[in-house]
Design goal:
The chain is built from 3 helices and no strands. It has about 150 residues and is mainly alpha-helical. α2 packs antiparallel against α3. It is rod-shaped and about 115 Å long.
Length: about 150
């Protein structure tokens, strides 16, 4: 047996009957209890923060979906307008009628494009603002909970 092994055996033999003072045990138990309580509080804050962020994210995705739906609806409307104009142009009997129909279609599409752009801009602004407000509220709530916990 080498010196280290012998010293280790001697240490454990001497320590086997040693008692930990009650005050040290009480401090250790209190520390574990406080650490568990603090962990519980921060865990709750973390879960609440994750839930709030998830809700804000769901709202943002819903907003993005509404923008996508609007773009798709505009595309459908514009495509239908093109087919209707093409059909009208194909039925034109004279060159002046054809030019009148083409001019009317272009004017109609410029008007529609302006209205669609305005609607899309307003919707995008609304979605961005709602998303920002949701994320800001979630962050504020989480930070307030952390302050109260700490």
């Amino acid at each position: 047996m080498n010196d280290f092994a012998r010293q280790t055996q001697d240490f454990f033999a001497a320590a086997k009957d040693a008692r930990i003072p009650e005050q040290v045990q009480a401090i250790a138990e209190d520390s574990v209890s406080k650490a568990r309580e603090t962990y519980g509080k921060f865990n709750t804050v973390a879960k609440d923060g994750a839930k709030a962020f998830e809700e804000a994210t769901v709202a943002a995705f819903a907003g993005a979906k509404s923008i996508g739906d609007k773009v798709l609806k505009n595309t459908e409307n514009n495509t239908e307008a093109v087919f209707d104009a093409a059909q009208a142009l194909a039925r034109a009997k004279t060159l002046p009628e054809l030019l009148r129909l083409q001019t009317a279609f272009v004017q109609q599409q410029f008007t529609a494009a302006g209205a669609q752009s305005k609607e899309l801009f307003e919707l995008s602004t609304k979605v961005a603002q709602q998303t920002f407000e949701s994320l800001n509220a979630a962050a504020t709530k989480t930070f307030d909970q952390i302050k109260k916990t700490g």
